[in-house]
Amino acid sequence: MSTADAIDVVVVGAGPAGLAAAIAFARKGIATALVTGPTRAADHRTTALMEGSVRVLDEIGVWERLAPHTTPLRDLRIVDATRRLVRAPEVLFRAREIGLEAFGYNIENDALRRELQAVADATEGLEIVRASAIGHEADAERIHVALDDGRTLSARLCVAADGRQSRMRQAAGIRVRTRAYPQVALTFTVRHTRPHEEISTEFHTESGPFTLVPLPGERSSIVCVVNERDAVRLIGLEGEALARELERRAFSLLGAFQVDEGRGAFPLASEVAEQLVAPRLALMAEAAHVMPPIGAQGLNLGLRDVSALLESVETATARGGDPGEESVLEGYESHRRRDIDSRMAAVDLLNRSLLSDLVPMQGLRGLGLYMMQKVGPFRRGLMRLGAGLNAA
Ligand SMILES: Cc1cc2nc3c(=O)[nH]c(=O)nc-3n(C[C@H](O)[C@H](O)[C@H](O)COP(=O)(O)OP(=O)(O)OC[C@H]3O[C@@H](n4cnc5c(N)ncnc54)[C@H](O)[C@@H]3O)c2cc1C
Known about the structure:
By secondary structure, this protein is an alpha+beta fold. 36% of the residues lie in helices and 30% in strands. The chain is globular and about 60 Å long. The structure holds flavin-adenine dinucleotide.
C-alpha cells in the first residue's frame, strides 16, 4: 500500500463511533482511512440515540439512512419500584414539553452498524482497510500506524475508536481509571401483547434499573441491571420461565412477553482514560470512556466526541493548519473533558443511590425525582441534558 503523505486521518475501529468519525472526516474532504479490525459477531442490543446524536448524525449525512430503522422515544417514564422506606413518585417526561417530537430514537445495533458501514463503503475519499492496528509511533510530522498484515499507514492524525480494550490507547501508554460495580446488565428483546406507545419505562429497583425501550411493532428491548447472584439465576432461565420472570419485573405493563433469540450479559463498570490525547492521537467513544448502561449515555457521549474532534480539526485546517497539531488535540481534550466527567459522575450517583440502603441517600433520590415532577424549569433542564442538548 502506498500511503505516504496521501492520508490525513486514520480512524482505527469500525464500531459505530469509528464509522461515524471516518464518514464525517471524509465528507469534509479530508483524506481518511478506516482500519476496520476483526469481523464482529451479531449484537442483539439496541441503542437509544438521543436528539443531540440525531443532530450529529444528520450533520454528517447519515441520519436519513438510519431513521427508517428507528423507533421514536416520545415519552420517558421513571417508576420507583424499590420497596424502601422512602419511595419517589412516578415521573413522566414528555418530549413535547421541550419542543421535541421525541427525546431520541432506538435502533438495533446490527442495523446501526450495517447502515453506517454501507455509507462508509460508498463514501468518496474514505479508504476502508480490512486489518487490525497493532501499534503506532508519532514523529514531528506524522503518526505511523502498524497493521497486523505487515503494512503501515501514515497520517497526520490517528483517531482511536477501537473500543474498550483499545490497543491504540495502550500503545500510547495512557492509563484508565476503572470502577467496577457489583452488578450485571442483562439484555433481552421481547414481543408483548400491549403496545408500548413509544414510551420508554425505567423501573428503579434495589439492584439497579430495569428498562424497557420501544422497538418497531409490539417489541421492546430490555436492559435489566441486577446483582451478580440474580444474573446467574436469570441467565439460567429459558422460554416461558424467563418470559414470566421478565414480565413480573415489568409489572406486566406491556402484557405477556415472548422472549426473542439472543441475549447479552455485561458486567457493570465505568472506565475513563486519564488523557484523551497523545502526540497525533485522539481517543474517542469507548476507547476513551465506558459507562454503565444507565440512562443511555455511552454512544451518545461518543458521538459528541466525533462532533468535537471534527470541529477542532476543521478550525485548524481552515487556517491552513494540520489536523494532528497540538492545538487541535488540546482543544478536543478541553472541550470533551467536562461533559465526559460530569456524565460519568451523574450515572455513578444515580446507580449508587439505588444500591444504597442509607435513608439520607434514599431521601435525596426521592427529592430529586419529586423536583423533576414538580419543578418545571428543573425538569425541562434535565430533559434537555438527557436528550444530549444544552440545558439552557
Ligand atoms: C447493555 C448496553 C446497552 C447500551 N445502550 C446504550 C444506549 O441505549 N445508548 C447509548 O448511547 N449507548 C448505549 N450503550 C453503550 C454503547 O453500546 C457503546 O458506547 C458503543 O457501542 C461503543 O461504540 P464504540 O464504537 O466506541 O466501540 P465498539 O462498538 O466496541 O467498536 C470498537 C471497534 O473497534 C474494533 N477494533 C478493536 N481493536 C481493533 C484494532 N486493534 N484495530 C482495528 N479495529 C479494532 C472492534 O472490532 C470494533 O468494531 C450500551 C451499552 C451496553 C453494554
